[in-house]
Design a protein that fits this description.
Number of helices: 12
Number of strands: 5
Radius of gyration: 20 Å
Helix content: 55-70%
Structural class: mainly alpha
Order of helices and strands: HHEEHEHHEEHHHHHHH
Oligomer: single chain
Largest sheet: 3 strands, antiparallel
Length: about 270
């Protein structure tokens, strides 16, 4: 076991430069390290790196633990992107060694990232096989939207009455970023910019715990349901338009319009 860990620690850091080649499709054996891969789809998984991966720390013995954590974080971000894009198929089982081979890393950081996704409800642990992508239905998504509305709507209405227009205007680039992502149909980028906008709005409350809980619920609502193929660009654009309209109403301190927009936003299970 220690010998295997030593080999893992000396792997080069998963820097953005190395990422592009590392994520090319790699053919993997049917079995690897005791985890079966026969139930995985034959089509190769193509995963994009996160938009802004953290910089790799300098190679030094004292930095190895940090370097390994950085790889795990980048793998986690990439897996989240694959989930949002639907590249990890609901109901399918994926083994850590097979995914590690596709990423060009060992199974360990993949397994650690998958454990985090299991905590978030995105995957389920399948003993001796790997991880099954959770199957999400309309009812679960509706329940998440309802809980988010219970948390976010009252806060937004309170903020609409108290936050000055200038502070709302500062959020304009975040709202526009959702529109830009929607315009090109980039679901993964839209998911990230969508959460960034909502976090920024709720952060004006000064309640960090509220922001963390709301963001976790928001992330869970972004995993695609079992019947999801791909969100159409028109749907993303409509969702993004609600962000800009909401921001306009907040700047104008039009509480009635804010209330109507936020309720419609969550009722439609939007971003």
């Amino acid at each position: 076991m220690e010998q295997g860990r030593a080999r893992e620690d000396v792997r080069p850091p998963c820097t953005p430069a190395a990422y592009g080649d590392a994520l090319r499709v790699v053919r993997v054996p049917e079995q690897a390290r005791g985890e079966h891969t026969h139930s995985e789809p034959p089509a190769p998984l193509t995963v994009r790196p996160p938009a802004r991966p953290p910089a790799a720390p300098p190679v030094a013995p004292a930095a190895r633990a940090v370097q390994r954590h950085s790889v795990r974080g980048q793998i986690l971000d990439a897996l989240r992107t694959a989930l949002v894009d639907g590249e990890l198929v609901p109901g399918q089982v994926y083994s850590a060694p097979a995914l590690g081979a596709r990423f060009g890393v060992s199974a360990t950081p993949v397994r650690e990232a998958m454990q985090q996704l299991a905590i978030e409800g995105a995957v389920e642990v399948v003993p001796n096989r790997g991880f099954r992508v959770s199957e999400r239905g309309p009812r679960e998504l509706a329940e998440l939207a309802e809980v988010r509305a219970l948390i976010e709507v009252p806060v937004m209405l309170r903020l609409a009455r108290t936050v000055p227009a200038g502070r709302w205007s500062a959020l304009r680039p975040l709202a526009e970023a959702t529109v830009a992502a929607a315009a090109v149909g980039d679901r993964a980028s839209y998911a990230e910019t969508d959460r960034a906008f909502h976090r920024a709005v709720l952060a004006l409350s000064g309640n960090e715990q509220l922001v963390a809980v709301a963001d976790d619920l928001h992330r869970r609502s972004q995993w695609p349901p079992v019947s999801h193929s791909a969100t159409h660009r028109a749907e993303l654009l409509a969702d993004a338009a609600e962000h800009t309209a909401l921001l306009d109403a907040l700047i104008a301190q039009d509480v009635a319009v804010v209330q109507s927009l936020v309720r419609e936003h969550f009722a439609g299970a939007g971003g």
